[in-house]
Here is the input.
Amino acid sequence: PPDFSAAQRKLRMDRSPLCTSLAGIGGGLMSTLVCSPLDVAKTRLQLHFSAALSAPSLARSPAAPSLISPSRGPASALAPSATTHPVRLTLRSVLSAMWCEEGLRGLYRGLGPSLVSVPLY
Here is the structure.
């Protein structure tokens, strides 16, 4: 088996606090960029279901609810639409609708404050 002790010693010696901090910030930025669309979609799903719970008469409507978007409020999100079949909202359907309706900008809505807060951790 190869001896990794020399490589381990070299790696330990080259770690400066600045280098470690920059690596952590870089990792945090990348994870924020990758996970941001999922976080936005999760928030929209939570808003949809909390609006459905606060307005039960609208939630029982047989019409398919549209997604909650910043341009449409929770009341219009539960209003009856042209279809008569209920739609099961999934993370995938929310991401797809966001991409079709709002494009890349919609997927990364609210990214600025998240990126600014990364170095603070």
Summary: The CA atoms of residues 53 and 59 lie 7 Å apart. The two ends are 39 Å apart (CA to CA). The first helix runs from residue 5 to 13.
